[in-house]
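Subject: for your reference before the review

Hello V.,

The reviewers asked for a structural picture of the protein, and I figured it would be easier to keep everything in one thread rather than splitting it across files. Below is the amino acid sequence we used in the manuscript, unchanged from the supplementary table.
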Amino acid sequence: MSHRLQLTHAPSVLFLFVLSVSGKSFVGDVIGDHDDWFVYHADDDLTDEMLDVIRANQPFTEEMRDNFFERISKKVNQFRSQYSRVVVTQGACKKKHRDYLRQTINDIELIYVTATDSLIHQRLEYRINGISNKSASSGYYIF
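And here is what came back from the structure prediction:
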């Protein structure tokens, strides 16, 4: 059975969020395949400092997170000058960051993407880059 996405009345920015490997990038790519949505996986813009922290299995600082969400907001607003519709994927579990995005990006809808814990941990086991299963379990990378 084939399903058709009905996004005619969707806001111009869809922001898919939750923890790593929940499927938000997959969902973003599916949306991007329909009706010319530009897909921005914000993980592509992790800072060198954040990548070092991930490799060291250390937690992000609040300052790192705040700066990263400022970076995401600027990037999304730049993309909006080029594309009429943008879908963004990124973990954004802290309310203050979701509120910041709502304040700095017009016509945005934040959508929580979820998966079962067992599926998340299974997908983490097969991941080569990014956070480890241990780090995800510890909550280190909850945004």
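For the response letter, the relevant points are probably these. The CA atoms of residues 93 and 143 lie 5 Å apart. Confidence is low (pLDDT under 50) at residues 132-143.

Happy to draft the paragraph if you're swamped.

O.
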